[in-house]
Specification:
- Helices cover about 30% and strands about 30% of the residues.
- The chain is α+β, with helices and mostly antiparallel strands.
- The chain has one domain.
- Strands 1, 2, 3, 4, 5, 6 and 7 form a seven-stranded mixed β-sheet that branches.
- Strand 4, helix 5 and strand 5 form a beta-alpha-beta unit.
- The N terminus is likely disordered.
């Protein structure tokens, strides 16, 4: 098992982005980096620094689509990035899909950006599954905003996942209960050349990949290591 893990780590460290999807994948990785930098660059409407520093992983979904005609649905593609071993720096990104639905009298279409913080080892374990549902399988809460906003409440301390959304330039905490996060095997293949799962990538101890350099830089700028 250790030999397999080391082999995977070595492969991830030098894996190429496949030529037939590199532009699309590269754009998504860069969009995720831009989303995070813009959110953290707005001091009065941002993720509290104390919460970010405690987070085990960050999930970024730029451009979550939401459409509705009687039956509503959500769909987006993004990336989960977890702290490297020891909490110093960030590991390689694992591609994820977020899907969800709602029922009721509604109509319209919108696009928003979603940011999730995975706050503990239990939440990180969820990410290594093939899929899980927020609210049903993972405790979640809408996150507070403001760099110095207090996080000393039971809801924020005990939740496995905190969630925010940005739409039309407005950023705030949002409930994503009922949404499902699943592995995006196709996107992982486009990045690494192998049909790896989130578990393969997030627990491999691999070095960051060149295609994610902008994303790694943004994460390290605002939170270089996890607070104890």
């Amino acid at each position: 098992m250790r030999w397999i893990s080391l082999t995977l780590a070595a492969a991830l460290a030098c894996a190429p982005v496949l030529a037939n999807d590199d532009t699309k994948t590269g754009d998504r990785l860069n969009n995720a980096a831009t989303l995070f930098s813009e959110v953290m660059g707005t001091p009065d409407r941002t993720i509290p620094q104390g919460l970010l520093n405690k987070a085990y992983c960050v999930v970024l979904v730029p451009g979550l689509k939401k459409a509705a005609v009687i039956v509503g649905g959500k769909y987006g593609r993004g990336y989960a990035v977890c702290r490297a071993a020891g909490g110093e720096g960030w590991g390689p990104p694992a591609a994820i899909r977020i899907e969800g639905g709602s029922f009721g009298l509604q109509a319209g279409y919108s696009s928003s950006d979603v940011v999730l913080l995975i706050m503990n080892a239990g939440g990180m374990k969820r990410l290594t599954k093939s899929k899980f549902t927020i609210g049903a399988e993972a405790t979640a809460a809408a996150g507070p905003v403001g760099r110095d906003a207090t996080a000393q409440t039971d809801g924020f301390v005990t939740a496995e996942i905190l969630s925010w959304s940005r739409s039309h330039g407005l950023f705030g905490g949002v409930s994503l209960d009922g949404a499902t996060l699943r592995n995006d095997i196709d996107e992982n293949e486009a990045i690494y050349g192998q049909r790896w799962t989130s578990k393969d990538i997030l627990t491999s101890g691999a070095k960051p990949i060149p295609a994610a350099e902008k994303l790694q830089s943004a994460l390290s700028k605002y939170s270089p290591r996890r607070a104890g």
